[in-house]
Amino acid sequence: MAETLRRVLNLGSAAGPGKNTAEAEPPLLLLGGPGSGKTALLFAAALEAAGEGRGPVLFLTRRPLQSLPRRTGPALEPLRLQKIRFQYPPSTRELLRLLCSAHEARGPAPSLLLLDGLEEYLVEDPGSQEAAYLAALLLDTAVHFSHRVGPGQGCGLIVALQTQEEGGDSGNALQLALLQRYFPAQCWLQPDAAGPGQCCLRASLEPGGLGPREEWWVTFQPDGEMTITRWPTQLVDTSSHKGSSSGGQP
């Protein structure tokens, strides 16, 4: 779902004509350390998808958002907010149960499936087998929704994962490498120089073979307002990103 996130980072404008539909796009893994703006970008992606005139957006997270991120790109229009369905599975077991029961759910199928805080569910069963099972079930659920939505539409999938500090647990590195096999498209958020009271990040989007890597500056002001500036066009070596296990530092 790199195109949805790209529109958010481009402040609502598509990168160009003839872009792939959600059905053709690979699932995306949003990676960054604590407080790197993953939830804000997920919410902005939800607002963007909710304004496309397709199905609702399913937003899964362990706990309710404490506040709505300010100026996340798409407007906080009531009609868009009404199309975002929040669900709060409190444990891995409940998350698995929710995903398995999605095949029996009635009503319009979601056009976008979002999961915030994947690491909070993986910590309960940190083995690679459990991570692979959860990732496969997320992909299977998105495929099922895509079949219900119909040809040419599809249901996208974006999952946010908190990365570890450099030199962290080797098990987390193996887990990340495994997840990257299921999520070929990735967006890395890494800290950048910031002014007083600001949080400045560098967002690097790799669309999983469907286009070149792109980058932006994302700045959060002290009041929570998010501003985005496109990184100057340049050729970037992506080899350091592939299979990175350095805790979110591409």
Automatic annotation (TrEMBL):
GO terms for molecular function: single-stranded DNA binding. One of its GO terms (biological process) is double-strand break repair via homologous recombination. One of its GO terms (cellular component) is Shu complex. It comes from the Eukaryota. PANTHER family: ATPASE SWSAP1, PTHR28653. This is SWIM-type zinc finger 7 associated protein 1.
